[in-house]
Each structure stands twice: as C-alpha cells, then as structure tokens.
Amino acid sequence: SLYSSLICLLKRLALPVFTILVLVSCVTEGRVAGMEPTQPVHKNNNLGGKDAQPSEKANISLNGKWLFKADHYNQGVHNKWFNTDTDTGNWGAMPVPGNWDLKNEYAEYGGVAWYRKKFESPESWRNKAVRIYFESVYNDVEVWLNGDRIGKHQIGFLPFWFDIQEHLRFGESNTVALRVDNTFKRGAIWNWGGIRRPVWLEVTEKARLEYQHITALPDLDDGSARVDVEMFFSNQDDSQTAIGYEVIVKKNGEIVWRTDAQSRDDHITIPAGDTASYIVSLELPQAKVDLWHFNHPHLYASEVRLLQEGKEIHRISDRFGIRKIEVDGETFLLNGEPVRTVGFNLVAEDRTTGNTLPMWRIKEDVDLMKSLGANMARLSHNPLPKDFLDYLDERGIMVLEEVSVWQKDLLVHPDHPLPKYWLDKMIKLRYNHPSIIGWSVGNEIGWHHHNPKVMEYVKSATDQARALDPHRLALDVSSSADEQEMDPVKYSDMIMFNSYGNWGQRAGWVNEKHPGKPVFIAEYNDHLNDEDLNEAYIDFEGILGEYRGRPYVMGASLWTFNDYRSLWKAGETWTTPPSQNRAWGVVDVFRRKKRPFIDLKREYAPVRNFSLQLQGDRQQAEIRFKPRKPLDIPAYIMSNYTLVWSVSGKQGKVVEGGFEDLPILQPGDDTISRNIQWHASEVHQLRVDLLDPQQYSVRDTIIYFSPPETPEIVSVHTASNRMRIVFHHVDQATEYKMLYGMDDFTNETGLTINDYIKIENLERFGSYQVKVVAVNNAGESRPSTPVSVQLNRNELPPVIRKTVPSDGSFFVGYSVDRIDYMYQVKYGTEPDTYTDKITSRNFGVLQVPGLKNGQTYYYRIRTRKQQGFDSDWSHEIAATPDGGIPPGTPIIDG
Question: Other CB atoms closer than 10 Å to residue 770's CB: what's the count?
Fold first, then answer.
C-alpha cells in the first residue's frame, strides 16, 4: 500500500521517473531506523485495499486471556517461542485488550514480551478470505501464525492486519504469537505496553469491500448537499470476478436515498488478485439535509452491499456528516458561520485502564469535556481509535488527527517513508469522520537547528494531506512561529501555535510574522498545577483574557484536560512528581474534578455574568446572563439552548421546576433576564442550568437555603508536628474547614474540597482539639464532635486518592512522598479483619488482584519510608470488584 501510495502521489506531483525509482527503492529494500514494510506486499494490491475498515460480518473475536511471558533477556526469537510446540507451562496470562503495565509485577516494565493465542479454523474457511486484525499494539510488533512469520508493524496507535489463509490449518487449531516491544517512547506520555485494543478474525468471500470514502459537501446557498461515495473492492481469487452493489443512505435509521436496481447487476469487474474502485454520486435536497455542527452533530450512514449474481456477499456501513470547513483570511468558518472555539488536549489514558480506552472511559471523558463547553481541539498527539472518533462524531467536538513527529526527530525528512505511510493510512482509515476537520503533520518540529529539512518535510506532508483529502485542513503545529520568519506554518492552512507564557504578546508576534491566517492556540498553560484537588490552580481568566479581543486568534485548547502517567523531568515547575501523575489537568488521573474545573467551566461557557438573585419573599429569583462579545473566546451563535431551574427539598428531591427554550442568541447580544417563582415553602436549594442543544449543562449556579449537615470525622493520623483529619462528605456542602487548638478552637484552616485536611508546623508532640465544619453559600454547618489529638513519632499514611473497582480486582490510588520506599495493602472480606497482604513498590497506583466479583472487601494501606520506618495504617475503605455486574437502577429525583 505504501508503494502504491507513493507512486500515486508522485504521479500527481509529476515528479520524474528516476525520483520514483529512488523512493521505491527506499521503501522496498532499505531500512531507516529499523523500519520495514508493515505487511508483506500482496500481488497487484495497488489500491491500498488492505487499509480496509473491519468487516461488519463474520468477525470472530480473539479478545480475552492470552498466554503472556516477559522476555527480559530477549531470548524469545532465538528460542523460537513462536513455534506451535513451545512449552508454555511457565507462561502467565494477560487480558486482551489490556496493558501489562497495569499488573503490579510489570508496572514499570519496558522491553519485550510475548503473547500467544489458539483459535480454530473450520474447513468451511478454505475458500474464504481470512484476515487477522489488530486495532492497536504498542509499539513494535512481529506476528507469527503456526510458526510462520507473517509480518511486522511499528506504529502503536494505528490498526494493522494480515491476510492469513495461506498460513491456516483448516479443521485444526492454529496458534498466533506476537513479540511486542514497548521501548519506543516519545514525549512525556507513558509507553503503555501490550495488545491495547481488540483483536479479531475477519472471514469473508474472496471478493469483498475494503472500505468506502464518503465526501459530503453542502451548498450553503440553496441548502442542498452533494454526496460522493467512493467504494473500494478487492478480489483474492485466482480468476476475475464480476460484482454488483447497492448503496443506501440513511438518517436516523430512515432511508433518504438508495441506488436504483441497475446497480445490482454484475457490471463491475475486479481482476484476479487485484482491486477496483467505483464512485456513486447523489444529491440530497434541502428537505433531507441537516448539517453537522458541534452543537447539532447530525449524522448519516452510508451502507454498501456487495452483490454477486444478485446475492449479498459482503456489507459495510459508515457514518458521515454533511458540513463545510473554510478559512477566510483570519476567520475560521463552520458551515459559513464564523466560530471562535475552545477545547482541550487529551492524553487518552488513565491509571486503572491504561490506554486501552474502554467505551465507558471514552464516553466519560468526552461528556466531561462537552460539559465544559469544548467544541474544538487538537485533541491528542496520537491517532485515536475508531470508537473514540465515533463518539466525537456523535457529541460534536471538532478535532485534528496528528502524525506524531515531535521536536528534534529523525522522521522530519521529506524522503522518510514512515511519516508518509502514517499520514496515508490515517487519512484512509479516518476519512469519514465529520469530527475530524484537519490533518496535522507534526508538533513543535519547526526549529531549523533541530530539523534542517523541516521546511521540505512540512511542505511535502501537507501537500500529501491535501492530495489525499482536499476537503480538510492540512496543518503543522508550531512553537517557533513567534520567533522565525521562515517557519513551516507557511505551508499550514491555519496557524496552530503552542504557548506556555507571555500568551497574548507571543500570539501577536505570530500574527505579525505570518499574517492573513487564523491562529488557533493548540496548547496553552503555564506550569504543572497539583495532584491535590484543592491545591491545583490555573489562571484561566488571565490567560484567555490575553487572547480575547484579538481578531486573528480564533480559539484555544488547554494542555491538558487530564493528568496522566509520566516520568518526564524538566524545570522545577515542569517535573513530574514521584507518584508518576503529571498534573496538567482540570481532572486528575482518576477523573476527579480539581478546583480549576469550575473556573474553566465559567471561562469556556458561551455566556458571561451568569447570575442568580433571590427576590423578596425568597420564593422567586432573577436569572441574568449575557452572550459573549463577537471577539470573545469562545464566541458563536447559540441556537436551541435551554434554561432549566429546580428547587429541591430534603434528600435532593425536586419539588418544583421549569424550563424555557431560549431564542437564537448572537455574540454581542444584550443581557438576558428571566424571573422564576415557586410555591414550595420547605426548600433546601435552588439550581439553574444553561443546557446546550445536547443537554450538557455548560453553565450553572446553586443557591442553598440552609447550611449543610454536620460532617463526621472518620479517622485522625498524627506525626510529631503534623496531623491529617479524614471525614465524610455531606450533602449540600461545597467546602470544608477545620477548627483546632491546644486549649480552644481559635485556629481555622482554609477551605478545602477534599475529604481530608492536613495541618503542618504544629507544636512538636503537642495535644490538640479538632472539629470539622461543612460550608455552602447559606453558611456553615454545626461543627463535628470534637476529637482530642495527641501528636507522636508516627508517620502519616498515604492519602487514598481513589479506589477503583475492576474485574476480579480493585485498584488503590494513593499519594506518594519523596522518601517513600514501598507500600503495603492489607485486606479481607470483613471489616477490621485482614487475611491477605500485598507489598509493592508501585508509585501512585497498585492493583489488588485475584478477587471475587460482587464480594465486598475491606482494606487499609501504609508506606514504609526509606529509613525503614512504617507509617500508620490508613483508615479502612470498602471496595467491591464489579466485573460483569450491571449498574444499579437509576433513582428519579423529580
């Protein structure tokens, strides 16, 4: 496929024959940094047919437990661990999809490991096309089937597959073996190892659909749309095949267009062992056109049926959206509308599922970002799985997919085949996703002293992107455009710029040196904030204030939405703490919300000055807000937004409420004012939400009518001159504080959103009295029952940040001190009765495995310091492994 893509590209560029010959030689014979063709070249496979999306029929999952063995001394190939008769008696097991780094014993393993799996291939497959499909393996992988080496792959974020019918043993068991190497590392992200995404077998007829590319462009004048469906077929038979087809376009499950009966005739011929393509074009009238927009992500589906003698032999279906992306001078247009956007960079991982990205993780992350007003981002440095892009299509966030070349990089060369292959494959696989608005060819690669060929590389790569997809933006992300007159952003359709200080002035310099294009701030931040939810701080109002009012700055994307695992070390405020949790985010590695979360929600909302004021008898209130200014960030037309209000009584039950569909609001419109009233007398809180068209609450406010309930102290931990008080959160509390003293309660801590309060620099070995108070905007609760505290020579245990149930296990997330040496967890099935213990040197997270789903376990954790002194045990926490257990029944509050 790479061979054919280069030929195709060079023909388009009209390069001379000798150039073609040199480049082909580079790919087929030479190696650059260990690269070799991803898969064996199949005869006549000149349309890139192996870049197909997986078939929707006859897929046999190979997910589940695989045999696993770490190859610490790189002996597996020499000892032929790929052979079917390999003794696997001392091999362990590893879940697929999964990351080996989630297991305690491999938590920091960087190196080679092997996977093996058996599957059956019945005799009925003998005349079929059989393909093994890996959605993602990190990072370098070699694959054997029944002892035969069938190929290699070296991009850990893209799918790959092999046609395997020549290697199968029909009617028998087959063994697939993988040698996986995770030592390749780029940037500050963790190099999670393993078969991280699903694996399956595809079984089809030898003539099949490979993929379809759907190009759907609206006519913004008359409201119609033109849709081109380009179908790609392959034929692995020894004789040519005549086929027919049918294309059905649906919206919300209803057919809006289909090909006529003539298309079903066998009038397309696919040569033996070759491929073919065919384009079907259609026009949709205005009545059947709904445009895709980040607030209105309307989706269609194109279903293609491959027919032979009138009988269906294969089918694929892809969703698409009808929308138009344009750059007009310094303005970015979506469907003809100027929009100024906001978003996030996401490191697509967490500490308990790694970067496997189960669907619930994808949905939670996207939903949280949408609730913060996100609508555009260079979301990830690395290509995202199809499931992730599907959900972005559904929920409406515009994103850019990127070839992950970064800073000083040998891949930044116009003749290097790997980034060309990466870009080609990424575009072919992701072409139909309306959420993707552009292709990025690199990040922060612009400095000429790092990459002498950067100008030539970016020009060739952006030209390649436009040739493969002329309807999206071709981009390069820069950190140098503010200092270099000759910067590769010259070849970018829009300037993508990263900035970590002096934000407004640097954006101005970018515009001065490279005028006439919109500037999207692809990354902005200052320095690491904090793992502690209460201590984290980012000056969103100040940073975004430097961008607002600049007509050429069309949006900004925070680095990052979430904290992520890392070992990266840099300057004092840029070095990852010993927990390995790199704290850039507004949520932590467990998706707990930090203090900056609510600050960013205010700054990313499409309205400002959102206020709620009680009136008169406290049974009515006024809601006021103002749409943002035309040059604000964000700024866009608000249509189909809704105001929702509710008053609640005890236990959060809604006693009254209402909603109003707002008119279309334009940036710069006057203040909106609405009055609400209710009749209930016993009211505990009034809440107002501004809902976007998809029902995400993008701005909210709450008035409490009474202080919170009294909190309860759970445990007290002490050392010689400090203590930590742990307490339970209570309903309707927004913050907490502690009152303390040696003889009275004259001392008061600051407010916290945590479930603990730590006080340091106390009188050594002193005696104290403490009590905790809950706070909301109606006042303070009654203090908790006072507790007497005697400081001593103990050490404080780790803070339990999060307990996460999993399948047959649970994970414990905890704080890490620089002088910690190792950690112990004791646990059992009864409170205060611990029958088992785990000792680990994992930093930040460890797993308690081998448990029964549905059984409740109770645990405590402590640390052993480097000097050998053990800390106190933590308070007790209950955890219930939840594999295969459905969620509870929702409770309707009103």
Answer: 23
